[in-house]
# Entry
Amino acid sequence: MKHIFLTVITFLSFSAFSAVTFTTPPVISGGSGNFQISFAVSEYCDVEVAIVKLSDSSVVRHLGAAVLGANPPQPFTPNSLSQTLAWDGNDDRGNVVTTPLTGLSVRVRAGMQISYEQAIGGNPYAFNAQFGINGLFLSQSG
# Structure
């Protein structure tokens, strides 16, 4: 039997409108390419779940991102604050993860906000000056 140690990293973002909390913290179970990540939040919100490397926080596998409620995409359960997602042990390209599992963690983010930070570019002397903004930079709080 192969022993696995995955660290759970959770991120919560608080806004003036709501305070999302984990009513059940993220838990990892299973093994040998058949992992289950389960958690529950206090209210419907947006969530993101990924497997990341501890060494550089790069994402190995995106498991899902959605706004919980009536119509979330797969693999999320509709109308449920309690969620369970499966991970087959592969990366985003379908290759078996070769990083030792002790070097990986599960990141669960809930209740994130995106806010305007600054405009990028924008040349009032350009031909398309009536539009004024060539790009936006958004940052994630939380």
Q: What stands out?
A: The beta strands are 7-12, 22-31, 34-41, 46-53, 59-67, 82-87, 104-110, 113-120, 135-141. The CA atoms of residues 45 and 83 lie 12 Å apart. The chain has no helices and nine strands. The radius of gyration is 19 Å.
